[in-house]
Predict the 3D structure of the following.
Amino acid sequence: MTIPEAEPSGLTASEAAKRNDLATRKPYIAEKLRNIAAMEERGEISPIIRLEKSYLCNFQCTHCSAEYYMDRHIEKVFKIKDERRKIDLEDIRRLSREADELGLARFVITGGEPLVMKDFDEVVAAIDPDRHYIITDTNGWFLDLERARHLKSIGVEKVQLSLDSMIEAEHDTFRNKPGSYKRVMRAIDASLEAGLNLILSTVLVRGRGRTEEFRSMCEFAKRKGIGLYVSYAKPTGSCTEHPEFVITKEDADIVRELEKDYPVFTHMTPSYGSYKGCITVKGIITVTSTAEVTPCPYIDFSLGNLRETPLKEVLARGMRNPWLGPHRPDCLIGEDPKFIRIHTEKTKGVTHLPLPWGQGFSDNDSLLDD
Amino acid sequence: MAEVSDMPLFDDFGRCVPGAARSPAHPRSRRYFTLLQPKIDYVASHARLLSCLGAGTTLDAAAFEARAASILSRLESDPRTAAIAHGVAVPFILPRLTIDDMGQSLDHRFLPAVREAFEGTYPDYRFANHHRGGLEGRTGIQPESRHARLVAAMSRSELVGIYFPALSEYSLPAALEQVTALPEQFLLAGGVDTCAALISAPGLLLRTDSYPPLLWLGALSSEQPAMGYHFEAYGFNLTFNRRPHLGLAAEYWSCGLTVLEDG
């Protein structure tokens, strides 16, 4: 067993091959990706932008972090409608330009389930697949070979496909969708056949890392030659009702050990020669359907609204925040009990998430109580 | 010239109170990223330092223990410095060695010795050096760090010292500012002493229940002023790397102080 030490370029052979392929097809994007290491050395950041244009979803998963943003939840629980203005294609074009000017290179279309969006193709075009590396999340339900080929043809580079157990019945139960496991398996083959980069995404709940099932998923990913992204269950969204899902350091360390033998990684695994630790703001932001920017998919505190504040200032707010900016090795919302408590208390019963800038995060935040 | 007051220089947990730092340092810590005092088995520690680093040829384990105890006792006898003993303290021995190129010494002698000590003690885990391109000719000593005194003393004889990761949540510039205000016996820890401490106690950064801090080699300069070198745990594994510090403080970051026998 070895921890992969860096190649001279900082990239593994597999990463380098993918970059070379991209450079021949999309040199502008490849150049931006190449610049990220130098940006980080200068203290600049290049977060992936997760775009939540719509929360429509054909699933209702046990652990969904976006459930509390969905109209179905707001209407069912609070008996109100979300009247806030939603982002449109022009907002996305403006965001794409602002991001490009800052050297940002990557967008993830997420939701909700992106592949139920009627305007998915227009969203891809608005992001601009010649200027940004575009990834889509999906539960795989609608991802057959024809759709996979179409995604590739419109400029999507990568698919992140959710798989929550190698045991069919467990996956379907966790996802509350009979037949969903079979659709994921179909989507894996379709994505590979269509030439899309593919990673599997799975949620790690407490204790799962030690199970035979999890080990078999690692084996499956290795056999298929695809990465397995492990997302810790966070105490937000639907998971708020399942505090028993929240992992311990032992769970995180089990995954770190598995990285030696399997193509498994978390958001904090060093990648592309970068050792960021927790990626809040530094490696990821989420733009919600109301143009609010949150520092990770699971923190429901906004750093600002893009209709009121330029992206550059929103990112600066995040980087000067004592919870978000400084380097740290653990997952802030998944592992730090104090931050989890603050987040849970402030978001409890809130009808419209995320909490605006000033109500969740502010420039007065402190790690200490006073 | 150092300003020395009668106030205790360390808090109840052995952290150096950042009174003299003008650059970023957290005034107080919530103690989220912490180290536990490793159990020091002087016989095993001496054996590791000898076999991995070639240090300890002129003294045995009993002498190592006695000489380390005298350092602690000296610190504890002064009310200003006594509380440093409430924190983590790792005794070490440095070999007699003339260092012309600090990077070369780290690359060829000290980092391989850390690897041997760590992997020898924890055969299931690994030491990884993620720094690309090597350190030879790329690192020196920060002039304000007092670390040059340690290097000079190494050229004369083997040294017994104690490593204290007492500058938690200091930026690297703040650590340099703070050390100049401490009594003369305190040196900012750099590469060779931090390596020796990790050979003496290979499990220093190995925690299963919570996260330990990253340890900067604060006395070392880098080719770029905003970059620094450090040790860091990755799960149960130990890593060495460089990264930008940008003159900022983080609750995850710590620098160390070294106190030598002769002060």
About this structure: Residues 144 and 186 of chain A are 7 Å apart (CA to CA). Residues 33-137+266-361 of chain A form a domain with the TIM Barrel fold (CATH 3.20.20). The first strand of chain A starts at residue 48 and ends at 52. Residues 27-41 of chain A form the longest helix (15 residues).
